[in-house]
């Protein structure tokens, strides 16, 4: 399954004009690319680095990851480790269900399928806006069991293309901030109504995280499309969609990878890790549900 993005061949890389929500894919892609350049990466996604290089994207649009004032490990920790946690959730699911469907919502240019390496019996679907999927098809290698769907997730029809009779792992990394609460609730209900059973995993945005996204100068490139108010109670989605049940809440402040952070960051993280409320507020949280 391992493949290099070079397999996709030479491409003409004139980027379309992206909206801030679409542009945000370069923040996560860039974070994973920078992680892969570390001597001991958290995630080690070298394909992300190949894609950024191939596109020639200017990461200085995202000072959070491009600044030279912050330790290189600390800068990429949240992005790389949350991708790693989500990969693990997906990997465990496809191990238990080799006939599964994996649905990646707001896939951007993420090559999760190349990191997870599911068996070929798994049907993998990456969904993002048509402009993003067009670029994706230029820079990511193709695999027989992977389909890309260019669609606005808020529209209902794209879901018709997906099977309705297979256990399904739904995953979303970095999407939640860009969908209104109303659309998120409608989407959740549509997904749960479409698939017979499965899991849903995503990184949560608390109200504080959303406030930071909107007000931090470092996030100016994407702040304009941050439309979700965030939520603080991980059980809230259970009330939004009947049949959804919280399985686990993973705080990155408590991740084993914290041990590899530089001293000050490590101590701050360990201090925050003592409290659930503080962990939710200052660090990334990955939520996992079953339905
Ligand atoms: C922060 S990026 C994350 C991309 C990717 N998951 C990753 O980890 O690199 C958010 C992604 O969500 C996509 N997105 C946001 N709203 C969407 C919508 N309504 N329909 C489809 N994709 C959407 C954006 O185009 C973007 O690619």
Give a description of the structure.
- With 291 residues, the chain is an alpha/beta fold.
- Helix content is 41%, strand content 14%.
- The chain is built from 13 helices and seven strands.
- A seven-stranded mixed β-sheet has the order 3-2-1-4-5-7-6, with helices on both faces.
- The chain is globular.
- The structure holds S-adenosylmethionine.
Question: Which characteristics define this entry?
Answer:
7 strands; 14% strand; alpha/beta
Give me a quick take on this structure.
Helix content is 41%, strand content 14%. The protein contains 13 helices and seven strands. The chain has helices at 20-23, 25-36, 46-55, 63-66, 72-96, 112-116, 130-139, 181-194, 207-215, 220-223, 236-240, 263-273, 276-282, and strands at 101-105, 123-128, 146-150, 168-172, 198-204, 245-251, 285-290.
Q: Residue ranges: pLDDT <50 for 5 or more in a row?
A: 1-10
Average the pLDDT over all residues and give the rounded result: 94
SS summary, helix count: 13
Shape: globular
The termini sit apart by 29 Å
Structural class of the secondary structure composition?
alpha/beta
- What is bound: which ligands? S-adenosylmethionine
Sheet of most strands? 7 strands, mixed
Spatial extent as radius of gyration: 18 Å
Order of helices and strands: HHHHHEHEHEEHEHHHEHHE
Question: Which strand order does the major sheet show?
Answer: 3-2-1-4-5-7-6
Approximate helicity band: 40-55%
Which percent band covers the strand fraction? 5-15%
Q: Count the E strands.
A: 7
Oligomer: single chain
């Amino acid at each position: 399954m391992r493949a290099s993005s070079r397999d996709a061949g030479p491409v003409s890389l004139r980027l379309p004009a992206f909206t801030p929500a679409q542009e945000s894919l370069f923040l996560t892609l860039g974070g994973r690319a920078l992680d892969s350049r570390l001597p001991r990466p958290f995630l080690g996604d070298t394909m992300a680095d190949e894609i950024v290089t191939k596109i020639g994207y200017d990461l200085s649009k995202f000072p959070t990851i491009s600044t030279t004032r912050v330790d290189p490990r600390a800068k990429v920790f949240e992005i790389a480790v949350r991708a790693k946690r989500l990969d693990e959730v997906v990997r465990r699911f496809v191990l238990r269900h080799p006939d599964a469907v994996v649905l990646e919502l707001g896939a951007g240019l993420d090559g999760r399928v190349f990191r997870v390496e599911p068996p070929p019996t798994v049907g993998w679907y990456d969904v993002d806006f048509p402009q993003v999927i067009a670029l994706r098809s230029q820079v990511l290698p193709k695999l027989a069991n992977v389909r890309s769907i260019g669609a606005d997730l808020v529209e209902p029809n794209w879901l018709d293309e997906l099977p309705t009779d297979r256990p399904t792992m739904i995953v979303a990394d970095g999407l939640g901030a860009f969908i209104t609460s109303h659309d998120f609730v409608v989407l959740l209900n549509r997904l749960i109504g479409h698939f017979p059973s499965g899991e849903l995993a995503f990184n949560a945005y608390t109200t504080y995280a959303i406030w930071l996204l909107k007000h931090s100068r470092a996030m100016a490139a994407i702040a304009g499309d941050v439309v979700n108010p965030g939520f603080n109670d991980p059980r809230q989605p259970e009330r939004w969609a009947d049949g959804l049940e919280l399985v686990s809440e993973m705080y990155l402040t408590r991740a084993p990878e914290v041990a590899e952070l530089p001293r000050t960051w490590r101590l701050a993280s360990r201090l925050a890790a003592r409290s659930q409320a503080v962990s939710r507020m200052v660090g990334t949280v990955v939520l996992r549900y079953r339905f």
